[in-house]
Design goal:
The protein is α/β, with parallel strands linked by helices. The protein has a domain at 43-220 and 245-270: Rossmann fold (3-Layer(aba) Sandwich). The protein is 48% helix and 11% strand. The protein has a 6-stranded mixed β-sheet, sandwiched between helices. The chain has a two-stranded antiparallel ribbon with strand order 1-2. The chain has a two-stranded antiparallel ribbon with strand order 9-10. Helix 2 (58-69) links the parallel strand 3 (49-54) and strand 4 (73-80). The longest helix has 19 residues, at 129-147. The radius of gyration is 25 Å and the shape is globular. The relative contact order is 0.13.
Length: 332
């Protein structure tokens, strides 16, 4: 297999484009695809300060890396979700990249700031862990961006991610979600920042290849809470289709953006207002994140009140020593 551009030995094959590249020209192709996505969708300019949501995985670290290579003012943001060793390792990978490249990184510690992990939020409120995690991330991305003066939040969602989400929304006809599925979600409220997905033209395999070629060390393991998630099932189904017919994911998602989304866009008519507790945008009086954290805190408080306190245990006296020996006399 030969590189399409220099005819040298190819290292990365891109079947959906019926082509292959050597490492050097693959990086050129990758950067060109990202730059094209940004320009065609008017995601951001070089005057914008961009907050990149970084998890320690290949997609987010690759996004942070390529945006910086393209000359954008990109700062990373890592959220410690409190998921045991997985969170500790992903934070180590993120910090290591920032230190190696002299990049600015903001870290939000959910257990330290809110008193419990996303798993504990989920258990206390009856949510599944992925729901509590997604809600927390969306809230904190927006809040931290506003507090630090960023106008845009960029996430590493790639073509595979978007196609899998689209398939799930189509199977269940979630028209309100279909209306909001796009590479760019413009700010619709003074306290809401624009969210962009510069990798919507890039397949997951290609972000992995980019990370390897660039020597980016990322966490390979999936989040332990994602086991059994339907999104993984949809990805597997699309992978089978892609293997038989390269370009299936691209055709599905790009076709939706061109032909399907204009038909459902009118469904997204929600009016946003300020949350009465935190001031973040919400469709109700209190935002979903505040409801979750307050409900969790209340349930934990009630649980502690219902748990009987254990009486103090007196140590067994040593042989030949009276039980009260050395004790202070009781107060009168």
């Amino acid at each position: 297999m030969r590189c399409r551009k220099c005819h040298g030995t190819a290292t990365v094959e891109i079947r959906r484009h019926h082509t292959a590249f050597c490492s050097e020209h693959f990086l050129e192709f990758f950067e060109r695809q990202v730059a094209r996505a940004i320009e065609e969708e008017r995601m951001l300019t070089h005057r914008d300060r961009v907050l990149v949501a970084v998890s320690g995985g290949k997609d987010s670290l690759a996004l942070w890396d390529v945006l910086r290579r393209l000359g954008y003012d990109a700062t990373g943001m890592y959220i410690n979700l409190g998921i045991g060793e997985y969170s500790r390792e992903s934070q180590r990978k993120t910090v290591a990249y920032a230190e190696a490249h002299g990049a600015e990184l903001l870290i939000v510690d959910i257990p330290g700031q809110y008193g419990m992990s996303v798993e504990e939020f989920a258990r206390a409120t009856g949510r599944v862990s992925c729901s509590a995690c997604g809600l927390s991330k969306r809230y904190l991305f927006n809040r931290v961006a506003l507090e630090h003066g960023f106008g845009v939040v960029a996430t590493g969602h790639n073509l595979d991610d978007e196609a899998a989400v689209l398939l799930g929304n189509l199977l269940h006809w979630q028209t309100e979600y279909l209306a909001r599925q796009a590479p760019v979600l413009r700010s619709a409220h003074p306290h809401q920042v624009t969210k962009v997905k510069p990798f919507y033209r890039i397949a997951e395999r290609e972000t992995a290849a980019y990370a390897i070629v660039r020597g980016i060390d990322y966490i390979v393991d999936e989040c332990p809470n994602s086991v059994g998630a339907r999104s993984l099932l949809y990805k597997e189904a699309l992978n089978l289709l892609e293997q038989a017919a390269p370009g299936t994911k691209q055709s599905l998602y790009w076709g939706f953006l061109e032909r399907g989304r204009p038909l459902v866009r009118a469904q997204d008519g929600a009016t946003l207002r300020d949350c009465v507790h935190c001031g973040q945008p919400t469709t109700g009086e209190v935002c979903a994140f505040c409801r979750m954290t307050e409900r969790a805190a209340e349930r934990m408080r009630v649980r502690r009140m219902r748990t009987p306190a254990s009486p103090p245990v007196s140590p067994e006296p040593a042989p030949g020593v009276p039980a009260a020996a050395g004790a202070a006399p009781p107060d009168r």
